[in-house]
Fold each of these.
Amino acid sequence: MNKAEIVSVVAEKTGLTKKDTEITINEFINAIQEELCKKDGKVQLIGFGTFEARNRKSRIGRNPQKPGETVEIPASKAPVFKAGKAFKDAVNK
């Protein structure tokens, strides 16, 4: 399912227009992104899951174009989603 399909389903279930639904979904995504950009930002949706940014250490990797060559992969922050218990249970039914 892609974003357009999600917009269609949510619009149909809520009775909102597709345009209003798309604006709402975009702002929801933006709110999560803005929170994760903050230091120690975290978004917890009870019953669904938690979004957070985790720090990744720098590490040594291999250059895929030249397998014998190593390259340093710099430290970065990575967005992570951890599903909540109710969400996991619903998927496993």
Note: The chain has two domains: 1-37, 40-93.
Amino acid sequence: MPLIDLIDKNVIKTPLTSTMKYDVIMELLGILDKAGKLENLDKAAEAVFAREDLGSTGLEGGIAVPHAKTTTVKTLTIAIGIAPEGIDFNALDGKPSRLFFLMLAPPDQTGPHIEALSEIAKITQSKSFVEALQRAKTPEAVLDLFQEP
């Protein structure tokens, strides 16, 4: 399933109001919960934090992809958050993360989870696309960027 099929304006937050790593995760999970995508917010948080405890999902270039497998979702689910000022997410390059893709998938759906991670890795290779996302001021602007050919 293409990433764009998982995204709507209700699962995008720009700018994020949180300034700490675990608060960002909770803010993004809250967005998914409000959008009706989670069966249990606390269990989803527990899964993401357990995954994060194994090693930071802060990548290079201002990107973070917190993710987990959990029974609190029926299908692959994503939230996108943008923190223009950057947040310390223990990224591989030691720099602040500005663009967050929080992903949750049911434990029995490994394929779509891996495909989405791969697609995020591919699109974030474009420095101009990442910079455009980081400058986006509204969920609609973020959505428009993903819908561009």
Note: The radius of gyration is 14 Å.
Amino acid sequence: MGARKRLAAEARKAALKTQYFAKLQNVPSSPRKMRYVVDMVRGMEVNRALGTLRFSKKAASAEVEKVLRSAIANWEQKNDRRAEDGELFITKIFVDEGVTLKRMRPAPQGRGYRIRKRSNHVTVFVGTKND
């Protein structure tokens, strides 16, 4: 690895140490379905977002709730205190495409149709308003 690349990587790592986030990788649902749920809670206060996710009918909301609880726990761990009501907000949340498993389904007349089993990665950043 070159010097410039190493310095840039170290700068990225140092920046992540001051941020509070959680990742959930290889979730077996399509990124499009997950983005519907993520768009519902983007920018919300975390307690309100947890309530929204708890009562959502989407199956992906359980996975987003799990990663949001992890991000809140990471914030509490790094700050040595509990999160109070109205203090923490979802600053950034996004869904990236994961690996796609390619499978074949039998089709008429000896053909085969391709099935793409998609997965995704969810990343949640939390912080206070004054950060």
Note: The chain has four helices and five strands.
